[in-house]
Specification:
Layout lengths: L1 H8 L1 H20 L2 E5 L2 E4 H18 L5 H18 L3 H23 L15 H25 L5 H19 L5 H19 L2 H31 L1
Antiparallel strand pairs: 1-2
Helix pairs in contact: 3-4, 3-9, 4-5, 5-7, 6-7, 7-8, 8-9
Length: 232
């Protein structure tokens, strides 16, 4: 009996080691430069994540549910990219984004408003806006303090600001509140400076493109509010 168990278990460590080795090789290949921009290498990983992220925002602007599986995939790719660059706040945010993408996907498919209606584009209201702002401002220094003392992040507070604001924006987006768009405008502007510091130039371009796209999404969702307001 023991010999049979040994025969079954024996190959497992070697198999696990082979899987880890293959995974490390795949990640190393993904982080290999595809081309160079402004003296910094642009990896294949960043390139693919860039394309998926652009596609995702276009789907968000059109309120298409395809945005969420695209968000899930691009978030996981950006996690690998940011972790390798020691932007731990942004990297951890991407894992949270992946979880929120699954939640948002469910919300857009099955979610309901407080009145029991299916989710539609709507506004948060003055009280909701103030609450979202205060929660975000309270969480920002707390996360910055954690990153400063518990990690080797080179820019802990600049890393923390888009992290906490992005969580707010993702929740607003998942619940189809129009206010998600001005949040993304702010997040994108701060992120441009952060990623430029790290030399992620393709991602800088991505977030620079995100700014006018967020403004366009804001206006697009505003137009979708008007029929609902008229009907009310």
């Amino acid at each position: 009996m023991l010999s049979t168990m040994d025969a079954l278990i024996g190959p497992l460590p070697a198999l696990f080691h082979a899987m880890v080795t293959s995974m490390d090789a795949a990640i190393a290949a993904a982080l290999a430069p595809a081309f160079t921009a402004l003296g910094s290498p642009i990896s294949w990983l960043e390139l693919v994540a860039f394309v998926l992220a652009i596609w995702m925002v276009i789907c968000n602007m059109r309120v298409q549910v395809l945005a969420w599986p695209l968000a899930l995939t691009s978030s996981l790719l950006y996690f690998l990219l940011f972790w390798s660059g020691k932007l731990y706040g942004e990297a951890t945010l991407q894992l949270l984004f992946a979880g929120l993408a699954l939640w948002g996907w469910w919300q857009w498919m099955r979610g309901r408003t407080a009145e029991g209606d299916s989710l539609h584009v709507r506004t948060l209201g003055p009280r909701g806006r103030v609450t979202a702002l205060l929660v975000t401002l309270a969480a920002w220094p707390l996360l910055g303090l954690f990153l400063q003392h518990r990690t080797d992040s080179p820019l802990p507070y600049w890393d923390a600001l888009p992290t906490v604001a992005s969580i707010t924006g993702q929740w607003l987006l998942g619940r189809k509140y129009q206010e998600n768009w001005p949040v993304w405008v702010m997040v994108n502007l701060v992120s441009i400076a952060l990623f430029a510091f790290k030399g992620y130039w393709l991602t800088v371009v991505l977030y620079a493109v995100f700014v006018p796209m967020s403004v366009a999404g804001w206006r697009s969702w505003q137009r979708q509010l008007r029929p609902a307001t008229a009907a009310a």
